[in-house]
What we know:
Helix content is 26%, strand content 22%. By secondary structure, it is α+β, with helices and mostly antiparallel strands. The strands form 6 sheets. A 6-stranded antiparallel β-sheet has the order 1-2-3-4-6-5, with helices on one face. Strands 11, 13, 15, 16, 17 and 19 form a 6-stranded antiparallel β-sheet that branches. Strand 5 and strand 6 form a beta hairpin. Helix 3 (108-127) runs antiparallel to helix 5 (190-206), helix 5 (190-206) crosses helix 8 and helix 8 (240-249) runs antiparallel to helix 9. The radius of gyration is 29 Å and the shape is elongated.
Amino acid sequence: MMVGDVLAGRYELEELVGTGGMSSVYRAYDRVLERRVALKLLHQHFADDDEYVQRFLREARTVASLSHPNIVTVIDRGEHEGQQFIVFEYVEGENLKRLIERAGPAPVERALELAIQIARGLVAAHERGLVHRDVKPQNVLLNGDGRAKVTDFGIAREIEVHRGMTQTGTILGTSDYISPEQAQGRHVDEHSDVYSLGIVLYELLTGELPFTGDNFVAVAMGHINEPPPSVLDRRRDVPPRVAAAVARALAKDPAARWPTMAAFCRELEECLRELRGGDTGAATMVIATPKGRRQDRGPKRRVTVARGRRAALPSLLILAGVVVLAVALAIALTRGGSDGPKRAGANTGAPIHLSATTSYDPYGSGGGEHNEDAHFATDGLQSTFWETHHYAYPDGGLGKPGVGLVLDAGRSVTVRHLILTTDTPGFTAQIKAGDRVGAGSLRDVSSPERVDAETTFDLTNADARYFVIWISNLGPHDQVHVNEVRAT
């Protein structure tokens, strides 16, 4: 087929916009409905191969069954002179891969927005029992408004299928984004799409791929055997919770990833909400507004100041109010000491929610320490845990100053006590804190202690958002666990 040809007496080919091993995509003009469309044409040499024809037709049926704003819509399918074609909505814009190559790492907020849109489209597919199996930025189109639309369901299969194209030994997908189980030719389900989307988000945030190599096999072996580098090793301004979400998506074991694409999507939505300063449940008192700015942007009110004797009663009421406020403030200061108003958890003994998000390994080689397991330290279950790597140095050493686990309060809080439980007692740890995680931003807020099965760290000057359990010696072990962490 060539530009200028008309298929089925209706679709005029205007420009070749992409080609792959199985098909080519043209921008075309629909003469009947007078609009631009995208037309995907199966290569001529596959026309007599029933397997490829059936796969092509299955793509048309698959996408036609999906209706979602983040999935490219199928308009029509047909055949012209023995060649199969599918007609899609035409998305005026570039694909996500070209955006990354052109602009580099995306702002964290924009990266999350795009990943959430992709996830929502995939959730719709998974709810219909379909796994994409080739999630990559090349298969994400961006329209003029910046909305992401997932396309190319050419190798999508029903989740419950165990034979045919998903049989053992068959490898489909793109090596840069392929899941370990897919690279090994094992059974693929929605966890594989979660992994691939994790790679896409990693690339959006860092501008790089976690695994590279000279050929398909080299990259695939990286996905199978090598621990993924932490996003924080490549980009320090990414919130630890976002990095932890990516790390969990990239777990080698499918069962250790997010249980569903919907769960991954919800976590990314929560990360975005926090990044945008969403409601944290904290009350705020505005003491003063900077000169020249109005705190209240509602309608201005007309204020009339009474004069003479008529002003006496309002003045007395105002004075009485001031006295009451002064007394209340004095009581609050008396109860709270010289520190003034309380921050969350201050001197109350009330629980403070912390989320374990990622490891902290500033002296490591860049792979992190089981980042995908960090969340187990605050999941409320004593039977699960985050663990360090194995070390074989004498006297419990790590061959470096230490390694840590990052805990995120979601906002700045005052922590008085941090309670740690472990099934590997005997190691040495202390608590560090700061409003961000990075070199020079953390301070010691407890002394080092030998950790028992349950140990309470008493913290001082611990007003921060992030808290790090810093492990400096493994004691009698070559690897230690943090089973659960609580704070008050």
